[in-house]
Amino acid sequence: MVQSNPLLAIVILNYNGRHYLEKFLPSVLASSYPNKKIIVGDNASTDDSVRWLAARYPEIEILQNDENYGFAKGYNQVLKRVKADYFVLLNSDVEVTAGWIEPVLQLMQGDSIIAACQPKILSYASKSTFEYAGAAGGWIDVLGYPFARGRVFDVCEEDTGQYDVAAPVFWASGAALFIKAHLFIEAGGFDEYFFAHQEEIDLCWRLQKAGYTIMACPQSVVYHVGAGTLPKGRRKVFLNLRNNLVMLSKNWSLAEKLWKLPCRVGLDAVAAYRSLFAGDTVFYSAVFKAHVAFLVWLISHKKTRHMSRVKPACIQGVYKRSLVFQYFIKGKKTFDEIVGETQ
Q1: Cα(30)–Cα(120) distance, rounded to whole angstroms?
Q2: Cβ-count burial of 303 within 10 angstroms (0-12 exposed, 13-18 middle, 19+ buried)?
Q3: How far apart are CA 15 and CA 230, in angstroms?
Q4: Is residue 9 within 8 Å of 181, Cβ to Cβ?
Q5: Measuring CA to CA, which residue among 340, 337, 211, 233 is closest to residue 283?
Q6: 3-state DSSP call for residue 250?
Q7: Treating both helix axes as pointing N-terminal to C-terminal, what angle do 254-277 and 281-300 enclose, rounded to 10 degrees?
Q8: Using an 8 Å Cβ cutoff, are 201 and 318 in contact?
């Protein structure tokens, strides 16, 4: 049954982020949607953000974790204690705009198979440019490289309205993720091994395999600082590379893994040596450690419960060619240049 005003829980995960809460909470509190509650889940912050929040915004519920569990387990722990029809997982470094909730809920309420959705995500520093973490909705290529409408590798496009039609995508960004609460729980939430990075892609993949659709709704707009909660560096590169390989191993079929995983590991190695010769030892070291960690996971992990599955052909947002080849060899830098010719 479609509800006219479903209960929406906007849940912001915080770790030592008072400066972001102070800056961006006012925009969240100004959201016009009436049936909402705002919750800050705290990952055992060591700054004064919890004390400041309780004193400044007593109307905001604070749910505290007993240690810093990262993005994946941190959200899992908090959302177990939240009752709502929809969750919005919102990064603390995101500024929302007027009316950002209503278009997404209208879209999701209109179709029972939509499990999750993201708004258009633009850069807070350059508000006419798509932001790296999700842009106008995420895709993935045949070898498991994530990219997005409006962002390919490190190239972020100017927003000229080129992706202003709501569309199915492969993954929705964890920076501003709308998801039906019962489906988040039914899917088992985020894979807690990931800690941070790509856990939302893994979740969206599992939801698609269960027969649900992931959407991007550009009529809703938010502005993301980016790299606010986990700055760029060795740790970020390591988590992205390790988690990507783990996700692919979890979700590809055995036949796919037999040829695709060696290709991915090989391409990672080529990128690592290229960076080493360019003097970037940080990236080289992160790739090596990520591959070792992936091998350890591969040997030691236990199979996890999956939701019921659909045929792979039903999964949307997959580019069936090599993104690396199109970008580095053919010189195509935008989503439309790469994907457009195959549509």
Answers
A1: 19
A2: exposed
A3: 10
A4: yes
A5: 233
A6: helix
A7: 160
A8: no
Task: Tell me the residue length of the chain.
Answer: 343
Residues 217 and 265: their CA atoms lie apart, in Å, by: 34
- Cα 297 to chain center, whole Å? 22
Q: Worst-scoring range by mean pLDDT, 140-154, 191-205, 230-244?
A: 230-244
Token pair 């045949």 in the structure block, residue: 142
Count the alpha carbons within 13 Å of 7 in the hemisphere toward its beta carbon: 10
| Residue 39: closest CA among 85, 94, 79, 76 | 79
β partners of residue 319: 141
Cα separation values, 280 from 2, 236, 250, Å? 53, 15, 30
The stretch 207-215 carries a mean pLDDT of: 97
Query: Which letter does DSSP use for residue 341 in this model?
Result: G
pLDDT for residue 188 is more than 50: yes
Residue 301: count of CB within 10 angstroms of its CB:
12
Q: What is the pTM of this model?
A: 0.95
Helices (H), 90-233: 102-109, 181-186, 199-209
Residue 153 — very low, low, confident or very high, per pLDDT cuts 50/70/90?
very high
Task: State how far the Cα of 82 lies from the Cα of 99, in Å rounded to an integer.
Answer: 23
Q: 3-class secondary structure for 25-61?
A: HHHHHCCCCCCEEEEEEECCCCCCHHHHHHHHCCCCE
Q: How far is residue 326's CA from residue 266's CA, in Å, rounded to a whole number?
A: 17
DSSP H/E element including 176: strand 176-180
Least-confidence region, from 25-34, 211-220, 265-274: 265-274
- Nearest to residue 82, comparing CAs of 101, 61, 105? 61
- Would the pLDDT of 313 be above 90? no
